[in-house]
Amino acid sequence: MQKKVFQLLVDNTSGVLSRIAGLFSRRGYNIDSITAGLTADPRYTRITIVTSGDDVILEQIEKQVAKLVDVRDIHELKPDDSVYRELAMVKVRCTPDERQGILATANIFRGNIVDVSPDSLIIEITGNQSKIDAFIKLLEGHEILELARTGIAGLGRGTDKVVYLDE
């Protein structure tokens, strides 16, 4: 089993995300993460999907998604030719005595403190998955009250794979 990151450009229409997720569900494919958002042109949405499977399954996923009516472009974002980022927000229980240590750890990872309460902190951290995983691992020993991760958003490096859609 290997993971692949696919980037899709789709029409910004009602139900497009549901149709894509439905294709995965009907075929029994797994979505490890999915992110979606408007592009610079509000007629289109960029979707980043991380999925896993063997070579045959991953090739089939790409072909099946490409056949969907709303999909304008699909291509793999290869790790060496792309930039991936993820956002995580971590709510950690902490006493006033523990706060400084948690703040120091967050600073090492360039995390931002976005909320402070008497008994907890919310830390925002962005980076690749391994950076976020390493940060969360360092918080072991502290009670993580809540954790929210966005999943990967990615773009290819350079201008080679920029897609221009003319209507």
Describe this structure in words.
This protein is α+β, with helices and mostly antiparallel strands. Helix content is 29%, strand content 42%. The protein folds into 2 domains: 2-76, Alpha-Beta Plaits (2-Layer Sandwich), CATH 3.30.70.260; 83-152, Alpha-Beta Plaits, CATH 3.30.70.1150. The strands form 2 sheets. Strands 5, 6, 7, 8 and 9 form a 5-stranded antiparallel sheet that branches. Strands 2-3-1-4 form a 4-stranded antiparallel sheet, with helices on one face. It is elongated and about 60 Å long. The model has no long low-confidence stretch (mean pLDDT 93).
Task: State the name of the first-level CATH class of the largest domain.
Answer: Alpha Beta
| Sequence of secondary-structure elements | EHEEHEEHEEHEE
Helix content: 25-40%
Overall average residue pLDDT: 93
Looking at the structure, the CATH topology of the largest domain is Alpha-Beta Plaits
Q: Rg to the nearest angstrom?
A: 19 Å
- Runs in which pLDDT lies below 50 for 5 or more consecutive residues are none
At the fourth level of CATH, the homologous superfamily of the largest domain is ACT domain
Strand residues, percent: 35-45%
Number of beta strands: 9
Termini Cα gap: 39 Å
Total helices: the number is: 4
Major sheet:
5 strands, antiparallel
Shape type: elongated
